[in-house]
Every structure is written in C-alpha cells, then in structure tokens.
Amino acid sequence: MNKFVTTFFATTAAAVGLFFAGSVNADASTTYTVKSGDSVWAISQKYNTTINAIETANHIQNHLILPGQHLTITDGTSTTKTQTTYTTPAKSTQSSTYSNQASSNNSSQANTSSNYSSNNNYSNQANTTSTQSTSNASSSNSSNSSSSNSSSSNSSYTGSNLKSYVLSQMSSRTGVSASTWNTIIQRESNWQPSVRNSSSGAYGLFQNMHISSGSVSEQVDAAVSLYNAQGMSAWAL
Known about the structure:
Layout: H1 2-26, E1 29-33, H2 40-46, H3 51-58, E2 70-74, H4 90-153, H5 162-174, H6 178-188, H7 216-230
Antiparallel strand pairs: 1-2
Helix pairs in contact: 2-3, 5-6, 5-7
C-alpha cells in the first residue's frame, strides 16, 4: 500500500513538473545579438516568430536594427500586440487630387480672365487712340479743306473780292497777319489800286516805288517780292 502511494505521488509530481516546464517553455524568450547584415525578417524566420513580435518586444520602428544590438526574441506562440497602421483612404487622396486640380483650374481661369481683361484694356486703349487719331486727322483734313476752300475762293481777283483776295494772298505768302496788311494798305492807298503818288511816283495799293502800273494780282506779286527783299521796313515797320 505504501509503495502504491509513493508511486502515485511520484508520478503526479513528475506530471506537474512537466506541466510547469511546458508553461515555461511556452513563455520562454531568447536574447539575440544583431550581426552585420541581419534584418528583422531574417531573425523572425530563424526563430519561427513574426516581425511584429520582435519589433513590439524591442520597441523597434521602421525595421531599424544595428549590429551589436541585443534583441529579445519571444516564442512565436506568445501573444503579441498588433501594431495598427493607419493609411489614408484612397478617397481622401482622390479628393485631394480633385481639390488640387480644381485649384489649378481656378488659377488657370483666373489667369485667363486677367489676360482677357488686360487684352481688353489694350484693345480699348488702341481703339481710343485710333479714334482720337481719326478725329484729329478728320479735324486736320477739315481745317485744311476750309483753308483750301478759302484760298481757292480768293485765288483769283474778280473785282468784287478785292480786299479778301489781297489780304488772303499777302498773309498766306508772307506769314504776316491780314490785319497788319490791312493797316498798311489803308494808310498807303486807302484801298485804291490805281492811285499814284505824284511826288514819289509810288503806285498802287502798297504804294510800291518799284512799279508804275499793273493789275491787282501783279501788285500783290510785287509787294511779296519787296517784302522778301526788305521785310516790313519797306513800309517803315
């Protein structure tokens, strides 16, 4: 009986010992020294564990290990915490892409609008300048036309246009105002084209001493020649 009891307890103790030994082995860990050329993946394959288990147990980030570093290698059956990696959903990327595209399109539209506005301004300025130039040209042409008509109307002497003919001819051909020539003629001949000074022999509207006769147009030609030779001093001015 005593032998049976002794055998029973011995068997039970051995079983309990094996149980605890298994538990210890299940939770056992190994220390590994990193060698040159090692990687977390190669070490996990060597010890039949996972990359996450090694990195979690040793607080490794980005799979970075260094030669000489001591790693604690846990049994592959041990419970390890799974590191959660959050990734940006594809939708967000697409939204960002659409946003960038929309921003780019808006920027392009703004630039186009700015260029269009700038071109319109240049166009308006060009049109304004062109209109002003046309207006000035028109005014100039109108003025020239009026001057031409005036000269044309006074280009020939008809008898009835004596004063207008003489004054327009003299002012246009000498550059001296018509009012000045009117004063001279009024003083010299009182607008009498055939008057002669009996003492000096001066003749005509301008009392020109270099002629003794001549029509009104000939008197104008002679007065212009005298002005070109002596200026206004010929009439004591």
